[in-house]
Amino acid sequence: xxxxxxxxxxxxxxxxxxxxxxxxxxxxxxxxxxxxxxxxxxxxxxxxxxxxxxxxxxxxxxxxxxxxxxxxxxxxxxxxxxxxxxxxxxxxxxxxxxxxxxxxxxxxxxxxxxxxxxxxxxxxxxxxxxxxxxxxxxxxxxxxxxxxxxxxxxxxxxxxxxxxxxxxxxxxxxxxxxxxxxxxxxxxxxxxxxxxxxxxxxxxxxxxxxxxxxxxxxxxxxxxxxxxxxxxxxxxxxxxxxxxxxxxxxxxxxxxxxxxxxxxxxxxxxxxxxxxxxxxxxxxxxxxxxxxxxxxxxxxxxxxxxxxxxxxxxxxxxxxxxxxxxxxxxxxxxxxxxxxxxxxxxxxxxxxxxxxxxxxxxxxxxxxxxxxxxxxxxxxxxxxxxxxxxxxxxxxxxxxxxxxxxxxxxxxxxxxxxxxxxxxxxxxxxxxxxxxxxxxxxxxxxxxxxxxxxxxxxxxxxxxxxxxxxxxxxxxxxxxxxxxxxxxxxxxxxxxxxxxxxxxxxxxxxxxxxxxxxxxxxxxxxxxxxxxxxxxxxxxxxxxxxxxxxxxxxxxxxxxxxxxxxxxxxxxxxxxxxxxxxxxxxxxxxxxxxxxxxxxxxxxxxxxxxxxxxxxxxxxxxxxxxxxxxxxxxxxxxxxxxxxxxxxxxxxxxxxxxxxxxxxxxxxxxxxxxxxxxxxxxxxxxxxxxxxxxxxxxxxxxxxxxxxxxxxxxxxxxxxxxxxxxxxxxxxxxxxxxxxxxxxxxxxxxxxxxxxxxxxxxxxxxxxxxxxxxxxxxxxxxxxxxxxxxxxxxxxxxxxxxxxxxxxxxxxxxxxxxxxxxxxxxxxxxxxxxxxxxxxxxxxxxxxxxxxxxxxxxxxxxxxxxxxxxxxxxxxxxxxxxxxxxxxxxxxxxxxxxxxxxxxxxxxxxxxxxxxxxxxxxxxxxxxxxxxxxx
Length: 935
Prior knowledge:
Layout: E1 16-22, H1 34-54, E2 61-62, H2 68-74, H3 81-89, E3 93-94, H4 109-125, E4 133-135, H5 146-152, E5 157-160, E6 172-176, E7 182-187, H6 198-205, H7 215-224, H8 228-253, E8 258-263, H9 274-284, E9 288-293, H10 295-305, E10 311-313, H11 339-365, H12 372-384, H13 397-426, E11 439-445, E12 451-462, E13 468-469, E14 478-479, E15 481-485, E16 493-502, E17 519-530, E18 534-542, E19 554-556, E20 559-561, E21 565-569, E22 575-579, E23 584-589, E24 591-596, E25 613-614, E26 621-626, E27 631-643, E28 646-647, E29 652-653, E30 657-669, E31 675-683, E32 688-695, E33 703-708, E34 711-716, E35 734-735, E36 739-744, E37 747-753, E38 759-762, E39 769-777, E40 794-804, H14 811-823, E41 826-829, E42 847-849, E43 851-855, E44 858-864, E45 871-876, E46 883-889, E47 895-899, E48 913-915, E49 918-923, E50 928-934
Parallel strand pairs: 1-8, 1-9, 2-3, 4-5, 5-7, 6-10
Antiparallel strand pairs: 6-7, 11-18, 11-41, 12-17, 13-14, 15-18, 16-17, 18-42, 19-20, 20-21, 21-22, 22-23, 24-25, 24-32, 26-27, 27-30, 28-29, 30-31, 31-40, 32-39, 33-34, 33-36, 35-38, 36-37, 37-40, 38-39, 43-46, 44-45, 45-50, 46-49, 47-50, 48-49
Helix pairs in contact: 4-12, 6-8, 7-8, 8-9, 11-12, 11-13, 12-13
């Protein structure tokens, strides 16, 4: 009887359980495009099905913690669906928990939840629950709240790798979120991570893969000649030696009596002879008991036998220390690679999360439901792009071109779903227009906070609109109209710009309908009361008299002031910002820092022979592009002379110079507590990195804060000097989602990004300079001699805002301001240029609010339940004290309950308090709360 067939050894204090785990790390796209990898995936699954059906000893295989590969396979092999489903239902092929294994810093908080929700849904469509392990084997660091996310999906265990070192983190530890949620975590080894079994396996199956590293093995194989028995003996001898090295290392670093041998290398085909592997494992050491196993079984066993298990709190972002850690790199600069991808991703997420899901949920509550598969399709296109080698921008150009197609599909579908939902929600309202030339303009606010502020919106007119005026005899004709609310009260507005003739397809799609023809579009600004998560209607009325506004926020040629802020443009194009509430002045804002870039999608690197260019001595041209009592906008244009490219032979920037065009449009609105900036880059240079500089002069600050999934993390400004001789030194550039801030005493400055900017930090200088990476222009891509798309040639634009504050960041206010910046507003109108929207044909109130949130919580999701008719609202508490929030609805609340993130009831959470149309929720510090409401 062989060892593998023998009864299990009696476990005692000297015996270690060894779980041999079969799987493959399947990068859906990376150094090959999707369709090339799919061809290989089909081969792998074909082989896997034959193997598992014919060989019961090959018990288990893991499809890398994601379910998207199931559809990738079935689209090519529909005839094999039943075979695959049978093995999945038997528990032999493990799928999930993710839909696609994402990067954890480049995508948003709700996108992570949607990913797990979709992974769960797909697994259930195949007849099983998803693998209950937070599998993050190849992420480039881990955010602080991942244990709470995993706990919200009933996962007690997880696998982590990058962002931890063996000298700081044992094999097993408890990872704790800021709220106290914990998951029992398995740390992959530094040297080979999840692929450590590949080396010994290569000796048996593919010896050519290790010939260069093992010359003694090569000589032994040559001495064996053509004798198959001798060659097999040589291979097994060397397998045992390589395996012993692996096993001994795992035993040395283990703080338990359980280890895993992970046969899980990238795109690896399944090993066929499991019995042989288990026999050789037992021959390697006599103090182990090995079995072909699964991750859930291994982690349950490990948790039971582990000892001296430490608790690690917060984000895991340690640089790699040791050069022998071939797998272990933190890889910190992906968040600044290919900014156009990041912008497209953020735009799609904002559309889906802040517009489409809330609007479709309200429409459903009012009796109209769009095909659910439409929303799912939009999300699938976005989530497929969230794979860590995709959204990180570290793949070949073809991969990222394919991603832009998927983003386009998601955006087009999301925009149309928004338009259709707004049409349904507003069509029952009363038409405010009283004559054929009057019409109703609807302004929609998707956020659950009422907003009285100056907003910018478009008004469209037929070319033959009846009223217009001119300034003098021969100046430009201007459409003459007034705005008023439903009660007839005038709404003053400021004209910003005009397109005299514009043709476009209707924004609201209709069968056999394209558009109403050419139009004239005016962009205006007006202070409007916007109901919370609702809309208000204005009447547009032709005026026989000229319509003008007097006054301006501009107080000097390059200076403007509102109730809270003063802005002034310096001759070199930098911004001076004065906070009138604290009497603090911020100078030299919006400068640029440019240096060489010789890195790739993973890492920024600059040359030793570097030239670091600063914009602070440039001269700027300042223009006033909008001026009036509601809005003032200055345009600041400057040019930097930069090296045209990097000379890879001489290893220095070339002497040739090109002109890099840079401009800001700096906008101050009446009543605003922040200043908005749109920065445009006309990139003509190659091989360089451009950063935005924001000196804050918060000189006493030792830390700063950055927004991450469901958290505002605090980070040290000073870099860890211990890492100076590590493989990777700590760098100032670090990831953030949409917000970062630094403050001390009466000084504080926050940057809020509308989309695409995710790499920032604060320099450890005297001025506490906040930095943001605007672009990295690189040509190196994996496995190529260099490609063009990563050079980021041409024009990019970034929108963001600067918000001063005193000392400690008011996190809730700042995050609400961020949501407002990202969401904006949406308009529709009736009349002759309704753009396909249905006529207003009812008597409903022209001003409606569907839901309002008040309190010290942040609302991150409003959506229909995954199952049933509940409205799901997710809130989170960024503070260190318990906080409350109140949700008030247009309809009476029938029931409310606390849910887990997967939207099943959470019996451990305090029940919401219901009173007529309101639900009150109490949320512990740093906690995420999901509420299901029945109306």
